[in-house]
Design goal:
- This protein is an all-alpha fold.
- It folds into two domains: about 190 residues, no CATH class; about 280 residues, no CATH class.
- About 70% of the residues lie in helices and about 0% in strands.
- The protein is built from 20 helices and no strands.
Length: about 475
């Protein structure tokens, strides 16, 4: 089920919210949680009627491992309160971690690995075709974060499997993030308080995300998909390549950022406060700054559960290089089973090291830093988007005039995409906040509210029109 679909907007969401806020349920926290859990499982089963059982089984395994991590044993000769047995808890954590890694490897990477093995031995040894469950990387990482947080004492064991299942399957963030840490919502599962202010904010935030997806990302996707398809089929001009690259760069942000806005907004409507996942990433003036603004839940996950346990930055330079290499290797692998993602992760690693040890970008003029960073992001996203590494290098070569600088095709795409490209570029920056601040300073609070609600109403109406006409597309990160 897609947030921009008519089924979700006009049936699922109104029914779920209507029942959730019925007086008999509204006054009973346990009833609210059970209802939200049922609704969330139905939401996932709508698109994954088979793999929903995989998710439920993984929740059961995670719950059991968590119970094992929370069990205490008396140490020999200890008369005081019992203490944890570290070796035993480590073994239990390893079992839980290995299970989740095996699940990810089987469903996300086994087909790719078998194909690569066949290529290596020049013989068709294995034929494996396994469908990819939607959002498996997101809900698997959430379950792993729960186990790590329990092991390190950052969160308490959730003994009620229904509460743990609600944390994992909560429909606003289930299939495309953000990756919600258990400690973030641990208390809110049983003690959250829904307020009118949160609900209104949540609706506004949801509609803003809806606009990013339906009115920007989906239109930019048409240009990006067409240009990448043309590049895959043959050569394109430099102009066509740059138009397609710019379109994809903004499409990815508005698609994933829009989903995160909708998830955060829906969570707020039900009393959950998810952490932000984006902070205007294209305002960055270095790659390090970019990764402090982009997909914050994923970068935070790798920082806390991979980078810091490996030793972080308080190590020797060779060890630091290894630590960061492992982070970026795993980041690339997390995004998908393709050499393009691994190459993209490797390039991130190299460029960040250059920034740290060679470039000394703090000495560069601010404008130069900004232009350099956005250019690098635009180029490496070609590798991220391409179907294969040869496709990526062919596209990059065409961007720099390998085929032709310009042609009628490039002019056509530029003319047809110019308005949406300019609008997208403007919306990459906090324009709405800037306008709101100016109206606040001018004392035009009523005008500010009127303009906001007119804009949100326009977004909803236009999204409804496109949704009814079948003009929506799945979120990019469904496949991750």
């Amino acid at each position: 089920m897609v947030f921009t679909s008519t089924v979700f907007l006009f049936l699922f969401l109104p029914v779920v919210m209507g029942i959730y806020y019925l007086p008999p349920i509204r006054r009973n926290r346990k009833a609210k949680n059970i209802f939200l859990l049922i609704a969330s499982i139905f939401f996932y089963a709508w698109g994954e009627p088979v793999f929903v059982f995989l998710m439920l089984f993984s929740i059961l395994v995670t719950w059991g491992v968590g119970i094992g991590l929370g069990e205490k044993e008396a140490m020999p000769g200890a008369d005081a309160a019992p203490r944890s047995a570290p070796p035993r808890r480590k073994r239990i954590l390893v079992i839980g971690t290995v299970y989740h890694i095996l699940i990810l490897t089987t469903f996300k990477y086994l087909t790719f690995l078998c194909g690569e093995f066949n290529t290596l031995v020049h013989h068709h040894v294995f034929h494996v075709e396994i469908a990819l469950p939607i959002g498996i990387s997101f809900f698997t990482f959430q379950m792993m974060s729960y186990l790590f947080d329990v092991y390190y004492g950052k969160a308490k064991v959730q003994k009620n499997i229904l509460n743990l299942a609600l944390y994992v399957s909560l429909f606003p963030q289930l299939i495309a993030g953000p990756i919600v840490r258990y400690e973030t919502v641990e208390d809110e599962i049983m003690n959250r308080v829904e307020t009118k202010e949160d609900f209104v904010y949540g609706v506004k935030r949801f509609l803003i995300g809806l606009g990013k997806k339906a009115l920007l990302a989906d239109f930019l996707a048409v240009t990006a998909d067409n240009v990448f398809a043309l590049s895959h089929a043959g050569g394109i001009s430099a102009l066509t390549g740059w138009v397609g690259a710019a379109a994809y760069m903004m499409e990815l942000y508005f698609d994933f950022g829009g989903y995160s806005d909708m998830a955060i907004g829906l969570g707020r409507c039900f009393g959950f406060h998810f952490e932000e996942n984006f902070n205007y990433p294209y305002l960055c003036d270095s790659l390090r700054d970019y990764w402090q603004r982009w997909h914050l839940s994923l970068t935070g996950w790798f920082r806390d559960y991979v980078y810091i346990p490996l030793g972080g930055s308080r190590v020797t330079i060779p060890r630091y290089l290894f630590n960061t290499f492992m982070v970026w290797l795993l980041t690339g692998i997390w995004h998908g089973a393709n050499w393009t993602f691994m190459l993209w992760g490797f390039i991130n690693w190299v460029l960040l090291l250059l920034e740290r040890y060679v470039y000394h970008m703090e000495r560069w003029p601010h404008l130069v830093r900004r232009v350099y960073t956005l250019l690098i992001i635009c180029l490496w996203l070609i590798i991220f988007r391409a179907a294969s590494v040869p496709d990526a290098f062919r596209y990059l070569g065409d961007m720099f005039g390998h085929t032709a600088l310009s042609d009628a095709q490039g002019i056509y795409y530029l003319k047809n995409s110019l308005v949406i490209l300019i609008l997208g570029a403007v919306c990459c920056y906090p324009v709405g906040s800037a306008i709101g601040s100016r109206l606040d300073k001018a004392g035009l609070l009523v005008l500010k509210e009127v303009l906001l609600y007119l804009f949100l109403g326009f977004v909803f109406v236009m999204t409804a029109v496109f949704s009814i006409s079948g003009g929506y597309s799945p979120f990019i990160y469904f496949n991750f």
